[in-house]
Design brief:
By secondary structure, the chain is α/β, with parallel strands linked by helices. It has twelve helices and 13 strands. It folds into two domains: 6-30 and 256-345, Aspartate Aminotransferase, domain 1 (Alpha-Beta Complex); 40-254, Type I PLP-dependent aspartate aminotransferase-like (Major domain) (Aspartate Aminotransferase, domain 2). Helix 6 (163-172) links the parallel strand 5 and strand 6 (176-180). It is globular and about 55 Å long. Bound molecules: 4'-deoxy-4'-aminopyridoxal-5'-phosphate. Residues 26-343 form the Aminotransferase class I/classII large domain.
Length: 347
C-alpha cells in the first residue's frame, strides 16, 4: 500500500463542471464562461509574446499585470497578488491561515471547492446556511474559525449580501474574512474598500468570467501587504506564465472592451430573467453572469435533461437544497433566445 496521508485517501476530490469533448456542438451555459471572446488587445499581446522568448522563465513578480491592476483598482502593488486562477488563491489562503485540525467555514450553498481545499489541508469545515430570505442563518456574534469564505455575489444563487452586513461581518469574524468576488464585475456593488478599513479582509477576483479568460487561468487577491507577503511566500514562484502575464495586463488596460461585454451580459441577464418568469419559473434576482431558476414543477434534473436533449448545457444539482432549480450561464442574446424556445418546448 502506498503511504498516502489519511485525509487524501478518504477525500472524494472536486469534480469541475462537465466539459463535453465537442463543446462546439452545444450552447454551453454550464460553467459561467463569457460568451464573448477576450479583447482583441489580449489576443495581440499573446501572439506577440508567443515566440522564442518562451524559453525564458516569466517574471516571478508578474510586474506588468500587477501594475495594471494597481492602477485600475487604485491600490499600491504590494496590496495585490496575481495568481493562476482565483482557485490558486483560495488554496493558498487556506494553506497560509488554517493548520491541520483548525477550522474554516463557508456558506452553504456556495462554492464547494473551499471544502475540497480544506480536506487537502486537513482543516475542519463548518458551514452556515441561508434563511428563506437569503440571509445568513445562525451566524455567531463572534466567529473564531481561521477563515470564513463569503462568496459574493453568491454562486450558484446569484444574489448579493447587503454591504452593511458584510462590513459588520468583518468585525464578527476574528480570523480572515475572504470575500470571493468571482462574479462582482457583474454586480452593482463590491467590497474592495473594506480591504482598506479591515486588516482581516481579503478580496479575490478572477479573469475567468468578466474578462473572458477562463482558459488562461488568471486571478488576483487584494489585501493588506502582510497578507499579500504571506501569499507570495506560498505561491509557486512562477505561477503566471509569460502568455498569462501579457494577457492579464492587456485585459486590465482595455476597460472599454471589458465594460461593453459586462453591459451586454447584464442586459441579456435581465431580458432572460423576465422571459423565464413569463414561462412560470421562479428566478432569484441575479447580480452575476448566471441565473438560478426553478421550474413550476421544481425539478432541476428534468429541466437539465430536456435542455441537454436539445444540445443546451446547464447545471443542475443533486444537493436537496438546490435540486429544485438549474443554474444557467448568461450567453449571447441569441443563445438565450434559443434557450427560452427550448424551455417552452419542454414545459
Ligand atoms: N470562486 C467562485 C465562486 C467560482 O464560481 C469560481 C469558478 N468556478 C472560482 C472561484 C474559481 O475561478 P478561477 O477560474 O479564477 O479559478
Amino acid at each position: 500500500m502506498i503511504p498516502l496521508r489519511r485525509n487524501i485517501k478518504e477525500m472524494a476530490g472536486y469534480v469541475p463542471g462537465y466539459q463535453p469533448a465537442d463543446a462546439a456542438a452545444y450552447i454551453k451555459l454550464n460553467t459561467n464562461e463569457n460568451p464573448y471572446p477576450p479583447s482583441p488587445r489580449v489576443l495581440e499581446a499573446i501572439m506577440a509574446e508567443a515566440g522564442e522568448g518562451l524559453r525564458r522563465y516569466p517574471d516571478a513578480a508578474s510586474r506588468a499585470p500587477l501594475e495594471a491592476a494597481a492602477r485600475l483598482y487604485d491600490f499600491p502593488p504590494d496590496w495585490i497578488v496575481m495568481a493562476n486562477g482565483s482557485d490558486e488563491l483560495l488554496n493558498n489562503l487556506i494553506r497560509a491561515f488554517a493548520a491541520e485540525g483548525e477550522e474554516i467555514a463557508y456558506v452553504h450553498p456556495s462554492y464547494s471547492y473551499y471544502a475540497t481545499l480544506a480536506e487537502i489541508q486537513g482543516a475542519r469545515v463548518r458551514t452556515f446556511g441561508l434563511t428563506a430570505r437569503l440571509e445568513l442563518d445562525d451566524f455567531p456574534a463572534r466567529y473564531e474559525g481561521k477563515l470564513f469564505f463569503l462568496t459574493n455575489p453568491n454562486a450558484p444563487l446569484g444574489f448579493c449580501f447587503p454591504r452593511e452586513f458584510i462590513e459588520e461581518l468583518a468585525g464578527r469574524v476574528t480570523g480572515m474574512l475572504v470575500i470571493d468576488e468571482a462574479y462582482a464585475d457583474f454586480a452593482e456593488e463590491h467590497s474592495l474598500d473594506l480591504v482598506r478599513r479591515h486588516e482581516n479582509v481579503v478580496v479575490t477576483r478572477t479573469f475567468s468570467k468578466s474578462y473572458s479568460l477562463a482558459g488562461m487561468r488568471l486571478g488576483l487577491a487584494i489585501a493588506r501587504p502582510e497578507v499579500i507577503a504571506a501569499l507570495n511566500k506560498i505561491r509557486d514562484h512562477y505561477n503566471l506564465d509569460r502568455l498569462a502575464q501579457v494577457a492579464a495586463a492587456a485585459a486590465l488596460r482595455d476597460q472599454d472592451y471589458f465594460r461593453g461585454c459586462v453591459e451586454n451580459i447584464r442586459a441579456t441577464r435581465e431580458w432572460f430573467s423576465n422571459a423565464l418568469r413569463e414561462l412560470g419559473y421562479e428566478v432569484i434576482p441575479s447580480q452575476a453572469n448566471f441565473v438560478f431558476a426553478s421550474s413550476p414543477d421544481r425539478n432541476g434534473e428534468r429541466v437539465y435533461q430536456g435542455l441537454f436533449d436539445r444540445n443546451i448545457l446547464v447545471r443542475y444539482f443533486t444537493d436537496p437544497l438546490l435540486a429544485h432549480g438549474v443554474r444557467i450561464t448568461i450567453g449571447t442574446r441569441e443563445e438565450m433566445e434559443k434557450t427560452v424556445e427550448a424551455l417552452r418546448d419542454i414545459r
